[in-house]
Design goal:
By secondary structure, the protein is mainly α. It has helices at 4-18, 28-50, 57-60, 64-86, 89-110.
């Protein structure tokens, strides 16, 4: 089954960060929205470390690797927030690469049958 936390919060916020190199924010409002997505992603890492909302997450949260991946996501999100506040597009690109590696690593270890991309995405909301 689809994990609501991952789809509604992590996937959506991460995509906003990943899109920066292709379409950098150009207004103060867009930069502020990017900051909000980074904050959302950082909070999601904490929720994920507690067990998330997926049917197996509570058990997985007891495993050290799960906590490590959640912390890596949180740390990258905090760096994304700092980069957004500095309006650092190249920094956000590098942080986005770190997020991809973290997401793919976690999926490979815990959810190999659920792709990290191409299955479900939240719609792109107008801000």
């Amino acid at each position: 089954s689809i994990n609501a936390l991952m789809v509604a919060m992590v996937d959506h916020a991460a995509h906003e960060i990943w899109s920066v190199p292709l379409t950098p924010p150009s207004t103060d409002e867009q930069w502020t929205q990017l900051e909000y997505h980074a904050i959302q992603l950082a909070g999601s890492g904490t929720l994920t470390s507690l067990g998330g909302t997926g049917p197996s997450d509570a058990g997985w949260a007891q495993q050290p690797a799960w906590g490590r991946f959640a912390k890596e996501m949180t740390d990258a999100a905090v760096k994304a927030l700092e980069a957004a506040r500095a309006r650092n597009v190249s920094g956000l690109s590098s942080i986005g690469d770190t997020l991809v590696a973290t997401c793919e690593g976690c999926h490979k270890e815990f959810k190999p049958d659920l792709p990290t991309e191409g299955l479900v995405h939240m719609p792109h909301y107008q801000h």
